[in-house]
Amino acid sequence: xxxxxxxxxxxxxxxxxxxxxxxxxxxxxxxxxxxxxxxxxxxxxxxxxxxxxxxxxxxxxxxxxxxxxxxxxxxxxxxxxxxxxxxxxxxxxxxxxxxxxxxxxxxx
Amino acid sequence: xxxxxxxxxxxxxxxxxxxxxxxxxxxxxxxxxxxxxxxxxxxxxxxxxxxxxxxxxxxxxxxxxxxxxxxxxxxxxxxxxxxxxxxxxxxxxxxxxxxxxxxxxxxx
DNA sequence: CATCTATTTGGCTATTTTGCCAAATATAAA
DNA sequence: TTTATATTTGGCAAAATAGCCAAATAGATG
Lengths: 108, 108
Known about the structure:
By secondary structure, chain A is an alpha+beta fold. Chain A is built from five helices and three strands. Chain A is flat.
């Protein structure tokens, strides 16, 4: 009972979105943008990486449709396009907490 | 205003969880396990990949704490440990729908 | 126009991820 | 014990990702 092409494509599309979130720096960026829009240089200061690296992370998130940009003068401001991605954090914390509990249980 | 080590570690931990989900096959597996537990060979039939590949995907999900396993006889049954990951799907569909809308808008 | 600042992109290397095959392991059954 | 089935693991090669530097681009300002 192998998957048809259409179903496969659907999962691939979903994975692309999630993959865009699957990086520490990009999670931090999303977290920051949840509060307010930021320009690239502000995010570089927060992240501490080379600005070209930050720009690449931003383009990955933008490409996935998670954030959007607006150029104002010489700066580019990024903001969260789909706030529901913030719901990920709650569940992720949940998983981490469960894992920690399990760790304790194993050690005992 | 660069990040401290602790904060960095927190985002890294979160990213590890999300990365475990960031693959089409693994999303399919999570989706299936949401309905009921499955043994590896059932999942292999659904996925269509080599069984060693499926096993590796399962170990990644298990390692992240998203699924758990139980050996019964010669088979290993996997089940969802943290159902809240299913909430991801709703938001991901949301993003995909928004992206499609934007596509339409651009074409017009 | 020349220059400055902010951002993106090309190009490169190092690292990680993927997926297969073959071999190892574990349990059940003959 | 031998055999068969289910699963995991080692090892490899191909592909994708990450992050840096340097160069290109774009807008603002003198």
